Predict the 3D structure of the following.
Amino acid sequence: MSSLRSLLGDVIGGAGVAERIFYVYNNNRGMSNGGCCCLWTAPTGTKNVTFEVWGGGGAGSGACCCQWGQHGAGTGGYAIRSMSGTLENCQYTICAAGNGHCCQAHCIGYTGYKSFVTGSGIPATCAQGGCGGTTMCHAHHAYNCCYGWHCIEGGTQGDFRLGIGRNHTMNTQYCHNQMWDNVGGGVKSSSSRKGRDLCHGPMVCSGCGWGCSDDYPSGGSFNATVCGNPCCWGQWSSGGMVKISYS
């Protein structure tokens, strides 16, 4: 069973061996982020390795006509896997997720992609992608409240793991002048975020990268909002990341 210290994310080097850290990720903020994979061979003398894994965030949904956000896109999962022993020359395939995107006005936000680590003697280690956002016609109604949830689900595996999270659109009794889209933030990288007031004109294309950018890694993205024309894309999401600490 892993000790509490080993689950803090960074291993502690023993016998005067310095700890080393590196990251695997693709920080392309555009729609073409295909993730990043590498094959890593643990160097001579390696006795401890910790992998921290973030899944990709979910993308915002597109919208047409009178569609507004219903569910904000979710954050990706998070997992830690620690290994000890004689690990030198062990090889690991490390893959950080790319982003999800809704490149058409009529599509539901894409689910984020999974980040994972495989290799020499390592149990299943991965972080699930976040749920995509959703829109619907006249989604906002008075007296609704915001809410969010996180769950442990089977798609995320590790010694320690946090499942995907998702937030609902926030409404108040002042439904004609106070409505916001809420999206999940990545574990250890950001909090959940509130978008612009959807009733602040013009109510068009608030999901199209209008300035409330996704948080890296693992953050969900905003839905499109349309009141009439034109149709609009949802905002593309943030990719995942893997942090490797070893000594």
